[in-house]
Design goal:
It is a multi-pass membrane protein. With about 290 residues, the chain is mainly α. Helix content is about 70%, strand content about 0%.
Length: about 290
């Protein structure tokens, strides 16, 4: 029988001991944090916002779950407004009344309140489109089988923020072609030497920070809302189905919190659509102010 020298034997035993320790640690981790195969708890992760491609993989027109949800939201808005306005009546029916209430909310509470009737009429189409588009895509986060907001990935919030910024710049140039940028970057009443500090700050805050904050405010609210809802309902499934027993009581609490937070997410969806639209109206109002 072959025998190993003392040094090799000790190295071999030490190696075996290390393997045993690693195996024990891995087993302990598996017991404490169950894997996906044994029905364990799975916390939400950022990977949910980057789902697998469903159609046209490997092309510039790849469609994943979130993009498909965006298409559904846009189609739903177009369909609702087409049905609600195709046969307008002097005495509106119930559905036409709902559509008119929504449009009047944007017209009166946002556009006319900030821009006045003349400018509100000019910019009402884009403000209405923004409000209902953001609202529809926000609400997909709580609709069964969709369960994620179309605005929770940067694409749509960024595009809408750029449109808002372009509208702001267009309105300012249209109102005062010669004075818009001058009044924006060189506020009146400031001593000339101070412009060395003020002008770069005004440029960054007016023309760079605004679209960034519009984008991040909308996107981050939708991301956090989705992660919290997934956390509540995943915990409910884990406590009631995977663990059962007295853990069911915890599942009841997480389910209740999930349902309450779902209602809260409806409020957040409406509020974020309102904030995005009203900030766009505020920027337009600043652009068309008399000093420009």
């Amino acid at each position: 029988m072959a025998s190993f020298p003392p040094i090799e034997r000790s190295v071999s035993l030490a190696h075996c001991s290390e393997i045993q320790e690693i195996a024990l640690i891995a087993n302990a981790v598996n017991l404490l944090v169950p894997t996906a195969d044994d029905g364990g708890f799975h916390s939400p992760s950022i990977d949910e916002f980057f789902p697998e491609v469903l159609f046209f993989a490997g092309t510039p027109f790849e469609i994943n779950r979130i993009i498909l949800i965006r298409f559904i939201a846009v189609l739903a808005v177009v369909l609702l407004f087409w049905i609600g306005t195709r046969r307008m009546k002097i005495v509106p029916g119930r559905f036409q009344s709902i559509i008119e209430m929504g449009l009047d909310f944007v017209r009166v509470s946002i556009a006319e309140d900030l821009l006045g009737k003349v400018d509100a009429k000019r910019f009402l189409p884009i403000l209405s489109t923004m409000f209902f588009m953001v609202l529809a895509m926000n609400l997909t986060g709580i609709i069964p089988f969709l369960n994620i907001a179309g605005t929770s990935v940067i694409g749509v919030p960024l595009v809408l923020a750029i449109v808002s910024w372009i509208t702001f710049v267009y309105a300012g140039i249209k109102k005062s072609p010669a004075g818009f940028f001058k009044n924006s970057l060189f506020p009146a009443g400031v001593p000339w030497p101070v412009y060395i500090i003020v002008t770069p700050i005004e440029f960054i805050s007016t023309f760079i920070i605004r679209p960034i904050t519009l984008t991040l405010r909308l996107m981050m609210n939708m991301i956090v809302g989705h992660l919290l809802l997934v956390l509540f309902f995943a915990a409910t499934q884990f406590f009631i189905i995977s663990l059962s027993g007295w853990f069911t009581a915890l599942g009841v609490f997480t389910l209740a919190f999930g349902l309450v937070f779902t209602l809260f997410e409806v409020l957040v969806a409406v509020l974020q659509a309102y904030i995005f639209t009203i900030l766009t109206a505020v920027y337009i109002q600043l652009a068309v102010a008399e000093e420009h």
